[in-house]
Write a structure and sequence with these properties.
Elements lengths: L6 E7 L1 H11 L5 H6 L23 H8 L4 E8 L7 H4 L4 H14 L3 H4 L4 E8 L1
Antiparallel strand pairs: 1-3, 2-3
């Protein structure tokens, strides 16, 4: 809660990045079993989480739907870590290539077409 003119920061774990990273890239869990258990809808691949879980995942359109109910103006919606999880790749870059990656990341971190592919996002609002 904040007074009018105050700034609110919210962080999200994006569901599509979780599916791509954990279900396909790293195969941390069996995506077929997760679908079978009803946690991933097979037409849109939206994710349903259990209220007893510690973490919840979301898509940007759901964030927009929730935040539309509040008297706020979005200042930024930013990808914190870029497309999927790049940590394993970034560790291997030399300094020059890492600097180029940072320039790329800052140039693309607010593009709507890329936000759902980020594992983590930061939403910044100003209360009206």
């Amino acid at each position: 809660m904040t007074k009018c003119g105050g700034v609110v920061f919210a962080a999200y774990v994006m569901s599509d990045a979780l599916i791509l990273d954990g279900g396909f890239k790293e195969r941390r869990w069996n995506i077929s079993k997760i679908i079978e258990q009803g946690y991933i809808e097979t037409q849109t691949f939206s994710v349903r989480t259990d209220p007893h879980q510690i973490i919840d995942v979301i898509r940007k359109e759901k964030v927009d739907e929730i935040m539309a109910e509040y008297p706020v103006t979005r200042l930024h919606f930013v990808s914190a870590d870029g497309c999927w999880s790049m940590s394993d790749v970034l560790e291997e870059l030399d300094d020059e290539l890492f600097e180029i990656y940072l320039k790329y990341h800052f140039a693309t971190c607010e593009r709507n077409d890329m936000l759902g592919l980020s594992s983590h996002t930061i939403d910044i609002f100003k209360k009206d």
